[in-house]
Predict the structure.
Amino acid sequence: MRLANKIALITGGGRGIGRANAFAFAREGAHVAVVARTESEVVRVAAEVKNECGVETMHAACDVANAADVARVFAQVTATFGRACDILVNNAGIAESVPFVKTDDEFWQRHLAVNLNGTFYCMRAALPAMLERGWGRIINIASIAGKTGAPYIAAYAASKHGVLGLTRSVALEVATKGVTVNAICPGYVDTDMTTRALERIEAKTGRSATDALEAIKRMNPQQRLVMPEEVAAVALLLASDEGRGINGQAINVDGGTVLF
Ligand code: NAP
């Protein structure tokens, strides 16, 4: 039990990578708080995790782009578990695509608000208690789009580049305090986010979703999608005591697509 009795807060825990993280952490003994905007999904994941793993769980509807919502949820975690969270996984994210010249203010701001501001709000809410306790883990789910660019995803890539800058800076600021801050950079993962991307390609280009899926698999040298559980396994290492020497890193889980 590598995370026995730790409290882990996972944003975007209602499905996909966040859901896999909730299970991975709970199987190692962590009590988990699962938050996202869709209440029915976080209710279900919290119940399933509790049922399967026998840990305490909490769920809350929360928009991470809203600082007041984030503050409310962190207070709720402390009230529910009797202390603040030890581990924060900033996983909530959105990814849409549009040609750059058609990127309007609303589209741009929405990507930065969820992916970058949301990560900032949650880190700022989590850190004081971690620093006071002298132990904490922050894991930001970024993307290989946080290291490289790609057509039609300027807003998403910019937001994820921002997450890496935030990760590296705060990691250095807290390095002597028992707290680590790292990012994980997945390639294409087998989740709803990728399914929606394939549907958009089909709608906009007429290329079939099946063809588009084969094309994105070929972008990965392993010729496949990454599974959510593979991302969760890296998060688990970063969250554990054994991972304490890993700080300020941006670890790719992409089969070798990006080599830096
Ligand atoms: P997903 O299946 O679409 O799940 C995203 C989760 O984030 C959902 O629970 C969603 O719930 C939540 N979320 C979205 N906006 C939110 C907001 N404003 N406040 C709170 N929660 C919010 O996507 P996923 O593939 O698991 O992606 C998880 C993370 O991995 C994202 O940060 C994504 O950028 C990153 N990533 C994904 C891939 C990929 O290929 N799938 C690749 C690289 C990086 P609600 O909609 O109910 O709020």
Observations:
- The first strand starts at residue 7 and ends at 11.
- The chain has two domains: 7-187+227-242, 190-225.
